[in-house]
C-alpha cells in the first residue's frame, strides 16, 4: 500500500509539472515580467503597449520559415510583433541573442517538456496569432527563432538588426 501511495504521489507531481509544459499553453497577449524581474535582457526589455511605435506582422508555418525573416529596428523603438501561425503544428517566436538562442535550443532538445513563459516569446497554436511587445534598448544583431524540437535545426530563425 505504501508503494502504491508513493507511485500515486509521484504521478501527480509529474502531471502537475507538465500541465503547462513548453508549448502547451494557449497563446497569450504580450506577457509582462514579474515585479521582482524587470525583464531587461541584452536585447532590450518588455515594452508597454501604450508606447508601441510600430507593429510588425510575422508569419510562420510548417515550411519552418518566418516571413519576413529579417527586420530592421531603431534603437529605443517599442515594437509590437503580431505572430501568425498558418501551419498545422505548434510554433513559437523567441527573441534573443544568437548565443542565447543556440543555448535555449540545446536545452529544448535536451528537455523538450521544459516549462517557461517569458515576455520575449510567443507560443502560437495552429491557425492562431500571438503578440510580443518589446523595447529595443541596445544596438546590435539579434535573432528570433522557433525552438520547438527540430524547428530551429530546420532553419526556423530570423535576424533583427537594431541600429
Polypeptide structure, described:
With 163 residues, this protein is α+β, with helices and mostly antiparallel strands. 18% of the residues lie in helices and 32% in strands. The chain has helices at residues 2-18, 98-110, and strands spanning 45-46, 54-60, 66-67, 70-73, 78-85, 91-96, 121-124, 129-135, 140-145, 157-162. The protein is globular and about 35 Å long. Residues 1-37 have low confidence and may be disordered.
Please work out how many helical segments DSSP would assign: 2
Q: Major sheet, described briefly?
A: 5 strands, mixed
Give the overall shape: globular
* Structural class label: alpha+beta
Contiguous low-pLDDT stretches (5 residues minimum) are: 1-37
SS strand fraction: 25-35%
Termini, distance in Å?
65 Å
Helicity level: 10-25%
Order of helices and strands: HEEEEEEHEEEE
Q: Could you tell me the number of beta strands? A: 10
Rg computed from alpha carbons, rounded to a whole number of angstroms? 17 Å
Instruction: Provide the spatial order of strands within the biggest beta sheet.
Output: 1-8-5-2-3
Mean pLDDT: 81
Amino acid at each position: 500500500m505504501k508503494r502504491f501511495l508513493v507511485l500515486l504521489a509521484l504521478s501527480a507531481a509529474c502531471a502537475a509539472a507538465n500541465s503547462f509544459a513548453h508549448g502547451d499553453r494557449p497563446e497569450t497577449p504580450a506577457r509582462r515580467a514579474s515585479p521582482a524581474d524587470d525583464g531587461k535582457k541584452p536585447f532590450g526589455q518588455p515594452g508597454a503597449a501604450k508606447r508601441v511605435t510600430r507593429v510588425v506582422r510575422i508569419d510562420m508555418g510548417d515550411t519552418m520559415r518566418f516571413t519576413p525573416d529579417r527586420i530592421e529596428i531603431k534603437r529605443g523603438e517599442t515594437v509590437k510583433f503580431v505572430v501568425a501561425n498558418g501551419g498545422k503544428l505548434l510554433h513559437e517566436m523567441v527573441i534573443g541573442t544568437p548565443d542565447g538562442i543556440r543555448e535555449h535550443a540545446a536545452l529544448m532538445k535536451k528537455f523538450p517538456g521544459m516549462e517557461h513563459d517569458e515576455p520575449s516569446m510567443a507560443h502560437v497554436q495552429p491557425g492562431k496569432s500571438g503578440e510580443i511587445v518589446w523595447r529595443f534598448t541596445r544596438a546590435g544583431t539579434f535573432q528570433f527563432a522557433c525552438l520547438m524540437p527540430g524547428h530551429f535545426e530546420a532553419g526556423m530563425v530570423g535576424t533583427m538588426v537594431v541600429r
